[in-house]
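Hey team,

Filing this mostly as a record. A colleague (T.K.) asked me to run one chain through the structure pipeline before their review meeting, and I want the input and output archived in the tracker in case anyone asks later how it was produced. No errors, nothing strange. Just documentation.

Input sequence:
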Amino acid sequence: MPEQRLIIEMAQGVDLHGRDDTKAARRAVEQALQGASLPIFGTLDVDRNTMRVVVHVATPRPESVDTDAIAALLPYGTVEVIAEKGGLDVPVAGDVALMAVAAIEVFLPTRTD
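Output structure:
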């Protein structure tokens, strides 16, 4: 079915002490969600579950990201999480802060009527 991307929200998240890629990615996604408001569903009388959500998270160790935990943060739609290489490990006073970035894309089916 044809679809159209309606929104992209981006944010960053940090784990200051644990060097946990999933924690930093989760914080990035939560931050992006805080900036997103989709009144289009009520305005157009569209079921929220018809949307497809693609979440890109970039961390230094993408293979360690729990993509199921990230997907569980999204309350509606069909969710796909893609973990990619990126983000930063930042040395901070004998420790390492880990920064992740996230981009959330929302797609809706194109009406054909």
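Quick notes for T.K.: The chain has a mean pLDDT of 89. The helical segments are 21-34, 40-44, 67-71.
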